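re: ur msg from earlier - yeah i can do the iron/sulfur cluster complex, just paste it... oh wait u already did. ok heres what im feeding in:
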Amino acid sequence: MKILLLYFSGTGNTWWLCQRFKELAEERGAEVALASIEELWSEGMRSIVDRWRESDTVGVAYPVHSSDAPPLLYRFLDGAKDILGGEGDGPEDAFVLTTMQSFSGDGALMLRPMLSDLGLELRVSRDFRMSPNTGVPLLTFNPLRDPEFEEQMAKTLEELEGTVGLVLQGKMMRKVQYGSFGRFHGWLQRAGPKWKDRTWRYFGAHPDRCTLCLLCVEQCPMGAIVQEGEGLRWTPECTDCFRCYNFCPERAITVKGLAMSGRHRQHTYFRDRGFPPD
Ligand SMILES: Cc1cc2nc3c(=O)[nH]c(=O)nc-3n(C[C@H](O)[C@H](O)[C@H](O)COP(=O)(O)O)c2cc1C
Ligand code: SF4
Ligand code: SF4
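and the outut:
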């Protein structure tokens, strides 16, 4: 089976999951091409037209953001309609993998109508729980510490193995976490105030900590951070993926004026393994 797996990852979890998906599926004889949506978005989608046409199934993977897919996914699939929608002899099946901290509800089903517009039937969807990668002032969570982190990864891998089997066997399994309660709660989260519309206003750079290394500017998938003199400005293009915040080497990015304190942790597990790529 030939699989094209398109993914977006803010802080590395979804990237890691997709790499493991590829390994597990290839061990079972499938051929998996991974494509980063942020790269396709900036460099052009035409490069995947052939891959798309050759594939038996297309996977889409993303981090759950407020029981929804990040805006980049919607923009990408909307743009893909013109380029890939008319490929009559292309794939007919799709699957969705998401990563989340704890609750997704029906967040893995949000792209179903857009996939359908591309002629794809969503057959398998599954959320995978993973550790958050960063601690944020005013919020209670922090990355898991070892060995809980390793235990969570092992559990996720086990679940992924099952999902790879479903995809390769062409089975149908669209999972909604907590059934109708999950759907309702997911709807509530999507109907509520949108973090992604506001967070760019909350971000800033701590004047004493920021060294103007510009790593955050280079790594932002949306080109949403601009340098202004000796400072940085976040713009409305920001879609709240937290990559800049997570990977700033000086812990200099502030949220509502607050920078990370000693009790906040920053997980660089993925950076040490090549994410985000240079
Ligand atoms: C803006 C935003 C909203 C989020 N919303 C949810 C959510 O509704 N439920 C959840 O379980 N996790 C939520 N998370 C956590 C991420 O889904 C989770 O950490 C994910 O694995 C990150 O993947 P990535 O490292 O590939 O970006 C949210 C994270 C961000 C940045
Ligand atoms: S990555 Fe951190 S230190 Fe470097 S420019 Fe951005 S905010 Fe400043
Ligand atoms: S500014 Fe930061 S949080 Fe916003 S899209 Fe860019 S990397 Fe993500």
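cool cool. Residues 220-222, 224-225, 234, 238-244 surround iron/sulfur cluster (ligand 3) (CB under 6 Å). ping me if u need the other ligands too
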